[in-house]
Design a protein that fits this description.
- This protein is of the alpha+beta class.
- It has two domains: 98 residues, Aminopeptidase (3-Layer(aba) Sandwich); 150 residues, Aminopeptidase.
- It contains eight helices and 13 strands.
- Strands 1, 2, 3, 4, 5, 6, 7, 8, 9, 10, 11, 12 and 13 form a 13-stranded mixed sheet that branches.
- The longest helix is centred in the first third of the chain and has 15 residues.
- The chain is globular, with a radius of gyration of 18 Å.
Length: 283
Amino acid sequence: MQLEIRRMTTNDIPFGMELKNIAGWNQLEADWRRFLKLEPNGCFVALRDGERAGTVTTINYGKKFGWVGMVLVHPTKRRRGIGTALLHRGIEYIKNCGVKVVKLDATPLGEKLYDTLGFKKEYKLERREGKGRQLRVRNVKGMAENDLEEIIRFDKKYFGADRRGVLEKLFAEFSDLCYLWRDDKNTKRGYFMARPGYNAYQIGPWVSETPIVAEELFKAALNKLAGETIFFDIPLMVNKYAAKLVNRYDFEPQRGFTRMYLGENKYPGKPEGIYAISGVEKG
């Protein structure tokens, strides 16, 4: 078997879509294009005997940590070490950029592999699924471009790193699905962004200082997406309120993930204020 790993290009997006459709994941072509814009040198395709076989993407969040996602291998080419080789290439790329900590959100199947490579568990995540509906909402407004700087600073203390690129691109593409909560002094206390997906709309990131603000933001999301199927991924245990909140709105568990890290987790952020991550493919 001859295995080659090269940089991904836009010509590889249809192949990426084929793989993620087989896996039943929620990404659109726009998501793949966003990966390539955020980290053009850090997205890769594996070729086995000249045929495309798998993918991996990475995102570096400054020098604090890097993210590995979209580790996918075609079913006809599995169990040949291709996924492991792609993962190693993603880790190598992140480390060569001067970033010492690598993070990812693992499926139960992937978790077994990551354990063998020295990844440690940080906390559990749970995907929830439900429907939008019309609700009354207080103090939540649509996000404007001049709100972004404050939102980026607000988000950094919770996420653990500056993810300006992700937030700016999500806002640029889906500004009508971005909302924030302001108090009487016009101070921003929380926000959420949402985006369309292949199977459902996805809420995330959804970040808030308090459960009360988080609930108003959630109601705004449900109101905006009334009648639509919605996914989001909540941190378990580290956020004591997220599961209780979404249970009240009949959002059911769909699948689980484990957030993991390789290296010293110096920048854990404040996951107690994260009610939905941006996505398992990018943190």
